[in-house]
Amino acid sequence: MRSRDGVLLYQETQSSDASTKTIDLDLVDPVTALYIEAEATNETGGNLDNFISDVLTKIEIVDGSEVLSSLTMAELEAMHFYKLGKAPVLFPSEWISGSQRHGAYLLFGRKLYDPEYAIDFTKFRNPQLKLTWNLAAIRALGSTDSFAEGTLKLTAVAKIMEGMSAPGKYLMDKELLSFTSSSTSGAEERKELPTDLVYRMLMTRHYSEGYDLSELTSDLKLTADADKFIAFNRKVKQLDAEALSRWGEIILTHNIYRATGGVIRGLCQVETQFEFKPNTSTQYTVFVHTLNFSGNVTLETQTPAGGSAGTRYYWGTEKGHALHGTLPIPFGDPDDPTSWLAPTSFKKLELIFTSGGTAGTCAVVAEQVRPN
Fold it and tell me: Which band of pLDDT confidence, cut at 50, 70 and 90, is reported for residue 291?
């Protein structure tokens, strides 16, 4: 097997600030992953709490009307971390006229260059990659505190495996559903999941800025055929603790442009911590920050003389877990397909969300074995 990179799109500036780019996937060799990257420039007043992860709203592989994979950029970044155990490319920045760049792998195997799982685009009639974006997804353009118009650059690179027989299957990452959680504590949302393909992993999302996962969803239960089989029935805070033990924390550079009292939105949603340093040696400042355990941190600064530090640039290091409010739930040994969840004998498979009393965005992403 020889590896090579097939560049589908490289740092291409998009003429529209909200659109969809469609790329034909006329590749004849097996593909182990697609690397997707988005970059944009902040306006002249900075760009607070507005991530490039929010801009790329859908990443799809389609074959006509059939969806072969579909994720948001935030979901893609989280799946990259849970599948590789390494942080994706994450460079959020609030700095005036600064750039933000995020990139992640859409993996079709258990790892890069997996000889047993890879996508074979020759088996499909008209495979295409579709990238959908909106630079104004969080904040309208044209203000001094947003992304600058006409600055979005997109990259897509296929990681190709030459000189090997194409596997008959690949791992499909796909958002199955999303909904707004109930604000009534204890209320149940029963979501039926498909039973036609084997599951290697589920990833759920429980996101509302400033809230812990368990404040949106207190419990999760995966049940088949009216409790004839229960894969799990757990507290979300316990599942999250297990995920932290297994994958550890994410550490990333997160540069900010803030005055004292600013509330900073983190990419990590649980036990988020920041360390800040001035961006020049002349800006000696005493830093005090209030640590919040739900993704947000309040910055408090003052000069050595006790006065206000004003609005300043800071180099920031963020660390935490539950990237973008996500929770990985793997099945069995990640390298042993015989231990994964095979639901084909079930008549009905349900994932039950019990509300923690806070409304927010919930979603279910599945990693499943799909034939080429």
Answer: low
